[in-house]
Fold this sequence. Notes:
Low-confidence stretches: 149-154, 158-179
Strand content: under 5%
Distance between the termini: 33 Å
Amino acid sequence: MATPADGTTSLSPDGSAHRLRAEIERLKAEATQQRRLAHRRAEFWTKADIALGFPAALLAGTAGTAGLASAGARVPAALAALASAGFAAGAGFLRSDTRRRANKRARHAWASVEARATVALAQEHVTPELLGDLLECRQAALAAYDGEEPLAGVVVIRNPSAALRPSRRMERRSPHVAS
């Protein structure tokens, strides 16, 4: 950073590039952490979905069989049906399957941010536009938890080598490209 005689502060090109690189490294670290967290959450909700869904199905089948088998088994069958309904209601209330899918989407989106940041850090020159693209990709990863589609113009790329090559369509829409 240089300070001329008039008191204004100007940044050296190396300082700006260093700050951009540091921000991309921070984004990569955040993406790595969020990807791992989304993976653990997806595993948890998968287990919760199975833990609630399997007993509900098993108890429903058992209750139906016991209720039809004999008149004396109707009370235990009714209790099994109530338990089955409780498990089904719990599964519906927690929406574990929806949460599992949202965390899987988020895991893939954060992996994309991580891959793009890795490719960006491997480049010799880092530009503000590249950081802007990474921040847009981060927004898409945050939106993945809500089950929303990625923001318009933001593409989650699964191929890291193509992560930094804008498509012709993206070049035309990008606010960073002069028209």
